[in-house]
Predict the structure.
Amino acid sequence: MRYLGIDYGTKRVGVAVSDESGAMAFPYAILENNKKLVAEVKAICERETIAHIIIGESLDFKGQPNIVAGDISRFVNDLRAVVSLPISSEREFLSTRQARFFQTEKEHVDDSAAAIILQSYLDRKNVKPLSETD
């Protein structure tokens, strides 16, 4: 099962894709946030046989929705109108700064930030509880 991760920004949108097993996230693309965005995301979902979309939930330092949260909500609604895939959110905090820490020579790291968001979701989803024998 392949997942698509999205780091939504007002100018650029980072996209990441998981491997077939849904264990590892990889940077995929940086898209311009324009009128073609929803169609481009839909095309990626079809081309990469995506089964589930994960989008970063944008919160401020107090854990409250920030000014981008409304834009994300509208984007998710537009996306739901054209894809019939489950769309989940993943809490993200400073994913772009984290990506910049590891990729100091890249000008834009939105795709890497999307991979960080997606990997967080995958790690949380794939955690197996320890049994009494472990």
The mean pLDDT is 86. The helical segments are 37-47, 69-80, 95-102, 110-125. Residues 103 and 109 are 7 Å apart (CA to CA). The chain is about 35% helix and 25% strand.
